[in-house]
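Try this one yourself first.
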């Protein structure tokens, strides 16, 4: 028998989530549990185990008097507290999901109105064995709307001998009319300390040799799931009964910490080829995607704390870079149904690199050049990382970009090789009209231009000032150029060069600090973009 089944809680007092345990213990003292409950929360937090425990205690012979008084023949006498279920063959069948008195229905595969009608017919009959029929509807959010509607009357007026427990990982999909009829019990992701306590119980009974650090690593990898934590502990322990950090790393296909910093360094180096090779290696090694992303975010967060001197060690990255990478990578979803592992994370890393290259004038990394560059003296890992961080921010000292020139194929009539044909003075004089023309084609580009300031027009070009590098980058993009050319044709009679000059935000008063932009775009422009 797997450890997950062998060591699942058998009583309310053994539940690992303190909030759930306390809430249910308070209900037991009152001598009666609600006949309709909704268990919500992430996977592996104990929803099904808790439902089975409730089914076991309601059918335990020592609770017969309490059940009759509370449900079957309710009276006005003083309520008697319900007691925890005792070990017995009947209890064992319930905890193993093999009992007729406690029935589990998978709402994902029995989600229609006919399935609910069948449930209503069964619930009308009292149990053949035991005292209370308990129906557990797992993944209840999968029921169809007609099925939910058919279920409402049953939940509002359940038979006295029946209890219904709906379990779901997506509570927002349960109709409000159903939720209003339920006692909601919220199961949250387990904390690291709660998972460690649960693991210690298994360690003690299996007589394993473990270290505190290895238990913490397993708890971190489990991401709040007791089930995942116990499963990982069982796989790492194997027949030796020893659990160490080294064995965990070997089980996951090597040191995740080393692979994480290889990826971070490749991103800073703007080495797209190496990034792709690293992800291919992770896929071939069968490294758990969720575990890798967790380690990646953990390392970046730890480095952030080091930069803020909250952690005593020295950081490997600049504060702005670790903060930017955290903000970017924490948005990456773990797609369980993706046909290619790590695809979302791989694309996000490549996107960061390509944006950084574009910011640096479209330069490619050494790894992407057709011919190898001259060899340079080797640097230590720390020196290389520091040097690359400096290169990523070197373009902040530049105040100009190349003029906006139509980037069309050579056979196009608006090719960049052709001379300027528009009247730049006319364009400047009719700037507002020009913005209106641009706005008819693309309101976003027009908004960018409105935030800029036209300065002068001479020698066939118009000089404008912009205050954010992101705006400067967008105004030189090919998509923007195509829109501008159309508007120039209407106002100036032909294409005109527009030169963007990056300026510092004006200070409104001596005692007022310059306006600060805290958007992700601005952060990116100060670091990798």
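Now uncover the answer:
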């Amino acid at each position: 028998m797997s450890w997950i089944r062998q060591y699942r809680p058998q009583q309310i007092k053994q539940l690992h989530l303190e909030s759930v345990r306390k809430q249910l213990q308070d209900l037991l003292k009152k001598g009666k549990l609600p006949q309709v409950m909704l268990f919500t929360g992430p996977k592996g937090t104990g929803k099904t185990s808790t439902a089975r425990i409730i089914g076991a205690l309601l059918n335990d012979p020592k609770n017969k008097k309490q059940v009759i008084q509370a449900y079957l023949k309710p009276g006005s006498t003083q309520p008697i507290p319900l007691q925890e279920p005792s070990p017995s063959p009947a209890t064992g069948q319930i905890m193993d999901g093999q009992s007729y008195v406690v029935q589990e229905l998978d709402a994902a595969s029995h989600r229609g109105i006919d399935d609910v009608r069948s449930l209503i017919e069964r619930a009308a009959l009292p149990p053949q064995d035991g005292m209370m029929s308990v129906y557990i509807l797992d993944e209840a959010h999968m029921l169809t709307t007609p099925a939910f509607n058919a279920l409402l009357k049953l939940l509002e007026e359940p038979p006295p001998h029946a209890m219904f427990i709906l379990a779901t990982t997506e509570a927002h999909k349960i109709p409000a009319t159903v939720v209003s009829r339920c006692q909601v019990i919220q199961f949250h992701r387990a904390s690291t300390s709660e998972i460690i306590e649960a693991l210690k119980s298994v360690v003690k009974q299996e007589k394993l040799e473990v270290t505190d650090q290895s238990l913490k690593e397993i708890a971190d990898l489990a991401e709040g799931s007791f089930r995942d934590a116990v499963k990982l502990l069982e796989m790492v322990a194997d027949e030796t009964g020893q659990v160490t950090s080294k064995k965990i790393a070997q089980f996951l296909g090597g040191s995740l910490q080393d692979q994480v910093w290889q990826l971070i360094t490749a991103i800073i180096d703007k080495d797209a080829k190496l990034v792709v090779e690293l992800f291919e290696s992770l896929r071939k090694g069968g490294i758990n995607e969720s575990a890798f992303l967790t380690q990646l975010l953990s390392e970046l967060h730890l480095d952030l704390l080091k930069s803020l001197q909250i952690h005593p060690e020295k950081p490997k990255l600049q504060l702005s870079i670790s903060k930017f990478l955290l903000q970017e990578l924490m948005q990456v979803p773990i797609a369980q149904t993706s046909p290619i592992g790590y695809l979302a994370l791989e694309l996000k890393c490549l996107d960061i690199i390509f944006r950084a290259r574009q910011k640096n004038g479209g330069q490619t990394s050494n790894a992407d050049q057709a011919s190898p560059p001259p060899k340079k003296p080797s640097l230590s890992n720390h020196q290389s990382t520091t040097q690359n961080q400096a290169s990523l921010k070197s373009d902040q000292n530049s105040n100009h970009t190349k003029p906006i020139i139509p980037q069309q194929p050579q056979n196009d009539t608006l090719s960049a090789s052709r001379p300027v044909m528009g009247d730049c003075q006319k364009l400047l004089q009719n700037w507002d009209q020009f913005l209106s023309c641009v706005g008819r084609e693309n309101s976003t580009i027009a908004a960018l231009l409105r935030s800029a300031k036209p300065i002068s027009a001479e020698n066939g070009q118009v000089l404008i000032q912009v205050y954010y590098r992101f705006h400067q980058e967008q105004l030189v993009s090919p998509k923007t150029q195509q829109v501008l050319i159309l508007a120039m044709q209407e106002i100036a009679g032909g294409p005109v060069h527009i030169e963007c000059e990056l300026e510092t935000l004006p200070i409104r008063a001596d005692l007022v600090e310059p306006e600060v932009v805290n958007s992700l775009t601005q952060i990116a422009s100060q670091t990798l973009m």
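Discussion: The first strand starts at residue 36 and ends at 40. The chain has four domains: 3-186, 192-251, 263-364, 424-502.
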